[in-house]
Specification:
Its EC number is 5.2.1.8. This is Peptidyl-prolyl cis-trans isomerase. Belongs to the cyclophilin-type PPIase family. The protein has about 180 residues and is an alpha+beta fold. The chain has one domain: Cyclophilin-like (Cyclophilin), CATH 2.40.100.10. The chain has an eight-stranded antiparallel β-sheet with strand order 3-4-6-5-7-2-1-10. Strands 8-9 form a two-stranded antiparallel sheet.
Length: about 180
């Protein structure tokens, strides 16, 4: 009886902390991200602005490095930079880690410069965490379904394109993205 009570309690507690989910369809397949509003409220709100305004549709994963990460959200299929909202505060000290399948915000050397670009970790990249390399890179969710699509991205050939390295030869495009109702 206790075993069932604990299992029920575990299920209820995991449901209580479930954040919004976003389904992303790409030219290689679909994946789902669960966002952590509790630990990264500013970052999640920022990401959802771009999801809800539709501006991630038609963007590409423009930097894919096997054994590291897949980065996207900032360029269209022709590598044109897309407009952004104002940069956000870095929430890397939220306790979330750059583990395999986590999603984090890309930024410049300025810790508070993240706008629309994000990356999905292909492996544990703890050297990107706040405790390892302050100011760190803010994790704000996890790919909960379809991580094989991200892994497939890393198997595609890349090249240099102008000043950009590790660009997939055949663009990997976000064709649809939406909050799961």
């Amino acid at each position: 009886m206790w075993k069932y009570a604990l299992a029920s309690l575990s299920l209820v507690s995991s449901l209580a902390f479930a954040g919004p989910k976003v389904e992303v369809e790409t030219t290689l397949g679909a994946f789902t991200i669960e966002l952590n509003e509790e630990k990264a409220p500013v970052t999640v709100a920022n990401f959802l602005k771009y999801v809800n305004d539709g501006s991630y549709v038609g963007t590409q994963f423009h930097r894919v490095i096997p054994g590291f990460m897949a980065q996207g959200g900032g360029f269209d299929e022709k590598m044109n930079t897309l407009p952004t909202y104002s940069p956000i505060k870095n929430e890397a000290n939220n306790g979330l880690q750059n583990k395999t399948a986590s999603i984090a915000m890309a930024r410049t050397n300025d810790p508070n410069s993240a706008t629309r670009q994000f990356f999905i970790n292909l492996t544990d990249n703890n050297f990107l965490d706040y405790g390892q390399r302050p100011p760190g890179y803010a994790v704000f969710g996890t790919v909960t379904d379809g991580f094989d699509v991200i892994q497939k991205m890393a198997s595609k050939p890349t090249h240099s394109l102008g000043r950009y390295n590790d660009v997939p030869v055949e663009p990997i495009i976000i064709t649809q993205i939406a909050v799961v109702k």
